Structures are given as C-alpha cells and as structure tokens.
Amino acid sequence: MRLIILTLALVACSGPAKEVEHVQNPAEEAGEVPVAEAGPPMPASSGDRIGERTPAPPAASPYVPPPLQWTVPPTATPGVWPPPMAAHAPYPTTSMPPGPAPNPGISEKWKTEVGLTTYKSTIHYFDGKVVVGSNGDGWKDTSDPLDGVHILDPAAGKLITQIVPPGGDEKDSNGVALTKDHVFFGTDQEILYKTDWAGSVLWKAKLKGDVEAAPALADLNGDTVLDVAVGSEGGFFYTINGKNGKTLKQVKAAAGGYGATGFLGAAALYDVTGDGVADAFVPCRDDVFRAIDGKKGKILWSHHGGSGMHGAPIIVNADADAALEVVFTEAYSDVFCADAKTGSIKWKATLENPDGGIEGLFSPVGWFPDASCVLVSTAWWGSHEGVYCLAGDTGQIKWRYGHPKRNITSGAVIGDIDGKPGAEAVIGTEGGQVVALDAQGAVVWSQTLGGSIECTPTLADIDGDGLTEVLVAASNGSLYAFDTPGKAPPVIGYHRAGPTNSGVMP
C-alpha cells in the first residue's frame, strides 16, 4: 500500500469547504462558581508532565484539606455531606504470579512506529482503520516528523495517512474523535482541528492553552451536525460549533490548590436535563468537578474537592437502579459515584496505598461489567501501585491488583482475550507490561513491551477473523497489535465508549 504523509492544507476555494479560524473569547462564563480554596503543598519539582503525581516534600505542619463542598441548583434534591464512605476492611489482593508470565496463546501480530502517547491519548479502530494521536519523538520539538494523527492499515500496521498540523509550535496530539467523514483533534499549538480523512482542514479553532484532553462529540445546538466539547490547559471548557468552529458556550476555571486551572481529562456526555441535548461532565485541575448544561452552558451542579482532577469520568448505571451515575476521581485518593442528574453523592471511596500514604489517581475511570465494579489505577510512588475494583453500588474494595514496578496511568478495556467464558480487564503499566485481569483480579496474561505504557489499550477484531486483537502503545514510540484467542466481541473495547468519546458505558 502506498504510504502518504499529508501536511494539513487549506481546502481550495472551489472545494466543498474553506478553512475557518476562530479565536475564542476568554471572558468568564456567567454561570460559573469561583473557587478560592487552599490547596495541598506544592510537590517537589521533577519535570514530570502530570504535576500532582510527584509526592510533596515534608511540610512544617500537616496539610489539612479544606472542607469539601457540594453545590447544586436550588431545584435539585438535597444531598447528604459528607457522603457515605466505603469501609475498607481487609480485601483480597492479587499480583503477578511467580515464574513465566501467563500467556493463553497470545502473540504479536505487528508493531509500527507512531511516536509517543500519554494517559490522555486514544487508540481507535473505526471504519476499517486504526487511528492514534501522536506526541512525536518528544514533547518540546516544533518540527517533529511523527506529530499529528496516524491512520493505519489494520492488516499490517502500515501507515495510510499521517495528518500533520500546519504551522509552527508544538504539534503534539493526544485524543482523537471520529465520524464517518471527519477527524477531530487538538494540539499543543492551542488549536482544535476538524479535518476530513484525507487531512484537509475544514476549520480550526484557537483555544486558550494546549488541548490535552480527547474531544467529545454530540449535537449541542440542534442543527444535526456533531459539535465538540473539549477543555484546554489554559482553564477553559468549550463547546464548539461543528459546522464552523465558533464557540457555542464556555466555562472558565478558577485557580486550584497549585494555581492550576487546566481541563486535562476528557468530558463525558449524556443528557440528564431531558432537553434532547447531551450535558457535559468535566474534571478540572482547579479541584472542581462540573456538570454543565450542554445547551445553555450553565452549571447544573459541581463538586468542590480537595485536589485536582485529571482522570476522565464515566457515565454508567453503577448500582443497577433506574438512574445513571457519573464516577470521577480526585488526584489524591478519592473516588466518587454521584447521581448524574442531581450530583447527589451515592458513595465516596478514599483509597490508601498498602504501604501507607495516598493513592494518586490520574487514569481514565473504567467499568468492569463481569465484576460489577469501577476500575481505578494508581500512580504516585512509582512502586507498589495497583488497580482497584470498587463495587459499583457501595464503593467497597472487591480486590486490588498490586503491581511492583512503576506507575499505572492507563485505564482499562474489557473483553475476552483467552477464549474462555468471561471477560478480562486489559491495562498497561509504566513498567512496560500489558496485563489482563479476570473478574477476581487474577492475572490471565502479561506481556512486556519495549517501553512504558500510559495510553489505555484498545480491543477490536481488526482483521475480520472473528478473534479479538489488542492494540497497545509504548514509550519506545511503537504501537503493537496482538492476536488473541478471544472469540466473544469486546464488552468495552475502547475506553471512551466509542468514536465520539461519549464516556457512556454499557
């Protein structure tokens, strides 16, 4: 297959569309609630991209976080604060078994170079193509040949098209959203792009700050064209008109405990107001989780926490009742399950590392239907990290998989990878292992790759043989595909639920 590398070009005037650029107004959204809470001690500087992840130096006096606040509209059903906290009596722990790593007949299918990915990156299998955003060879290079969006032939991983953002500055790209005709992605140029699959720019929107989170798509203004919901590292959450790139609504963050304001985690989209328009559920580093009316851009409810929020949330029926919940995390140990409509907290789980100290929570939140549990990965100390399985109805710890090496910032995907009854949860670790866990947390498969893994893997039948493949990216710049004997279709093959990144779990 002929390899084509395309630099994004303006669509010719005689073509179907013309590139339009819009600079967003940084004025604060009128409905926002300012936050002025003190934050935790500043961590020691390590050059780490994540920030809160590095442990803080000893303080002269213990840090006491401010009282948590629960803010809802006057019409909402009052909640109880503090919410019930899950008790963590002794719980089962699992780990890698001694001896050779388990392998139920899984083998490498292909490996191809795509550049660096992060815990905010996405790997799609869509319309017969594999699509991944790339940070290139490094995070500070303004002329990196691997930056942009890589579109690959799934048969052998060969490059079909590389969409390279035009202009200068850093062109690093993380999350990508897709439709049959269009590709949406943001860059460290502080620009959100809409292109066609050939790489021609239909519009670009200049935002305030790098676009780190994956964009999410929904029709937010009733014109039948999918619009974009996305945050920026500069502290703004935007809804963008899918036709022309103009801002529909925006919300501005206040300064959190580090003075941080970035919207780094992808939003989840679901209509809870009943107006036919998806509403947005958004974490932010200003210590606030917001539910935002997708049509009006006003705050439906908000949770004011004690630390920044990085992990992408999910919408799921966690407790098997009649209502959907939103599950989200704070960077310092806390996991919340809230009624998505009212914001009433159903449970809160405060996690503690088995060696003592906090659990750093940065990964996308996952859902494991076979175990009826929320999955959260930990990343703080660099050793003895883990993956928790928290009961969806109570937040109780069902089990914790303990990993001895490095952090775990990957989320989880769910599917059959061993050909036996039941599904497995597949994660990546920064120690370079891709690991599959069964519903009891036991290791079913482990494979060491050529670099650390931050990006959540993807499960899909990419070659049409009726068996599931695992797609996983490592810090050596490679994307790997593995053949598995898994026969059942993936349960949750992609961690943001689908090509539009809604975050709504089955």
What's the quick description here?
By secondary structure, this protein is mainly β. Helix content is 0%, strand content 35%.
Structure description:
By secondary structure, the protein is mostly beta strands. Helix content is 0%, strand content 35%. The strands form 8 sheets. Strands 1-9-8-7-6 form a 5-stranded mixed β-sheet, with no helix packed on it. Strands 2-13-12-11-10 form a 5-stranded mixed β-sheet, with no helix packed on it. The protein is globular. The two termini are 37 Å apart. Mean pLDDT is 86; it is low at 1-82.
Spatial sequence of strands, sheet with the most strands: 1-9-8-7-6
Radius of gyration over alpha carbons? 21 Å
Classification by helices and strands: mainly beta
User: What is the average of the pLDDT values?
Assistant: 86
Percent range for helical residues? under 10%
Largest sheet geometry: 5 strands, mixed
Instruction: List low-confidence stretches.
Output: 1-82
